[in-house]
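Sample entry (498 residues):
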Amino acid sequence: MINKEKIENFYNLWTTEIDKMFSGYIYDEEGKPNPTRYIFSYYLTLLERFAVNRLEEIEKINLLSGIRGVGKTTLLAQLYYAPRFISFSKKSMYENVILQNYEKIYLDVSRLASEDISLNEFFNYYQERNDIRFVDLKKKLLILLDEVHYDEKWGLFLKNIFDMTKSHKNILVIATGSSALKIKLNPDLSRRSLSEELYPLKFNEYAILKNNIYPQKGLSDKLLEVILASKDAKELFEFCKNRQIEISRYFGALPLNAEQDYLYFGGFPFVLRLKNKKSIVFELVSGVIDKFIIKDLLEMRKLSSETISKIKDLLYLIASSDSTDIDRICSTLKLDYRPVRGILDALVQSGILVEIKSYGQKFVRVRKPIKFLFISPSLRVSILNGILPPEVKGKILEDYLALIFSKDFRKKAKNYGGIEVMYDSSSGGADFVLRLGKEKKIIIEVGFGKENDGIKQIESTGKLINGYDYGIIISHKGGLELISDKIIRMPFKFWLAI
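Predicted structure, serialized as tokens:
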């Protein structure tokens, strides 16, 4: 049994230091509040509904996963001091958050674990100290838990909170974890929690945070909708044609090379403060992977020291190739198939890699090459230390599409009977095949503006999959063009605006 005095000392020190600890997260070097990400509005709305007793039962426990460096701690700090981050124009929408009609506590569970104090022990003390019981709370309590997976029994702790507070709506827990493997797969919280994922920055969010330049309101959703819902290439072309001036005006307001700077350096919020210190960005972004290997992967999987030592080499092989032949990787690294596949699965489940399976792969037994993309172009660029061979440059555009598919397309999936993202692994096949519901198929090829670049790939894949609704060539260079009734060339800038 842990010493009560030890918990009391931790609590007293923690509560007196929290303002100083959070200052670096909520203020910039000039003392101005740091900008918020899009997801802040989601949680702000959740807080307002919590304050007026309108939470659904399952919303009491909110789990937020995301790879290291995407801003989870900053988000919790901004929620802790929420009234400071509500703009004047939105104050009427969040009156009860501004009034702070609830108690609040923030905990870094890794710090708690380093003192050998469990969540259960700490909150037993917290209830006793404040003369409350979770089972019959009379006043609302917001609990913010950072790096919750550092407590071995965190899932059971949250399950018990959920079960003991069924009679009221006076508690809200928002818990984050970099170890998405644990956050997503915890059996104690099935049907007792909601999960969100915080992704690396998209381009338009980067432009807002870096340059305070906003795209036209609603443009992202409209682009996403028309890409998925057009009946043919002509309808998509007409929409894009009518938006060209708007897109040009948006990118014209941005600094020169903003697009390339984003792809190379802009995936993570922590690089925004570096200004001209690009030389250390690659090192910092690579550190995201290093920490994943050291702190998350080793906790989840029993790996030999030989396997661990080759994880960075494996990532380099993926970063410098078009598709991943696992058998070839095994041969190159001198590892068996099972540990290699296990590491790849962990990298996918953690959110660092996105696995794109070959079209029709689930129906055949042949082991085909698999396409692995990075959830942010910045990860690939950093692994390659900024040196991209010509044949790999197109891959950073595909990485960006992987982010869009994971973040934005996934949210629209239910509107279309589900969305599957695949690719054609045959020679000369297209980069992506989107299957919406049971029938609709969209083929996507990433090109660089050469004449006829991408047309053959789309037509070849179209034959393989027995027809398609329309094909999109995403062109890094060149303009918008309706190539045929079935194929449109669409500048990459349109996708950056999503």
